[in-house]
Design goal:
The chain contains nine helices and no strands. With about 200 residues, the chain is an all-alpha fold.
Length: about 200
């Protein structure tokens, strides 16, 4: 479901960027998306390692250890996310030259808008980690809903709404806005009761 949502959303984004900027817009979007996928792989690796630990702590009923694991994981992924954001901005010129060595229009487009798109990296890792926490604490249905909202519902809504406020610039803010709103939703979902009362107490539900 998540992959289908990503494909559908990417198609909508490609059409919007093509209409606003022409083929250079689609190329710029592809470049920005590719860099996000690189960090996304690192985030997923972290979550795959942390998920079983959190699930084990939840299963044993050691609530203090579970809370410590969630807190440590959240702190670590937040630090990694901040580093990814800073690294992507510091290396923006290298990225741009690598993907657009001869296209001056594409380089100008990325130089103007890539920093705004990179804000999504601040929230992406946290959203993935909190989805893993939801799954590990017996709220897989919440994690699945969060994934659908993050990959399709909110990006699509932002894609149509933000250009009304910021014109074409709003297209670049759609993904960061969707990730930010997803983080707020994830925090709310963590407050909902888990199927296991023990996991619920550990995460504040």
């Amino acid at each position: 479901m998540s992959n289908l949502s990503v494909v559908a959303t990417l198609r909508l984004f490609n059409r919007a960027f093509l209409a606003a900027y022409g083929v250079d817009g689609v190329a710029a979007l592809a470049t920005a998306t590719f860099t996000a996928y690189v960090f996304n792989a690192a985030y997923h690796g972290f979550c795959e390692a942390a998920g079983p630990i959190i699930a084990y702590k939840a299963g044993t009923g050691d609530m203090a250890a579970l809370r410590r694991a969630i807190r440590a994981g959240t702190t670590a992924i937040a630090a990694v996310s901040a580093a990814a954001f800073l690294l992507s901005n510091a290396g923006a010129d290298i990225i741009i030259r690598r993907f657009a060595p001869k296209n001056a229009a594409l380089r100008a487009l990325l130089a103007a808008h890539y920093p705004a798109y990179a804000f999504s990296l601040l929230f992406l890792g946290l959203n993935l980690f909190l989805a893993y926490v939801l799954s590990a604490t017996e709220r897989g249905h919440c994690a699945a809903g969060l994934s659908l909202v993050r990959t399709f519902v909110l990006p699509t809504a932002a894609l149509f709404a933000l250009p009304l406020l910021f014109e074409a610039d709003g297209l670049w803010l759609a993904v960061p806005a969707a990730e930010c709103l997803t983080l707020l939703l994830a925090a709310l979902l963590l407050g909902l009761p888990a199927r296991s009362s023990r996991a619920s107490r550990a995460t504040g539900g």
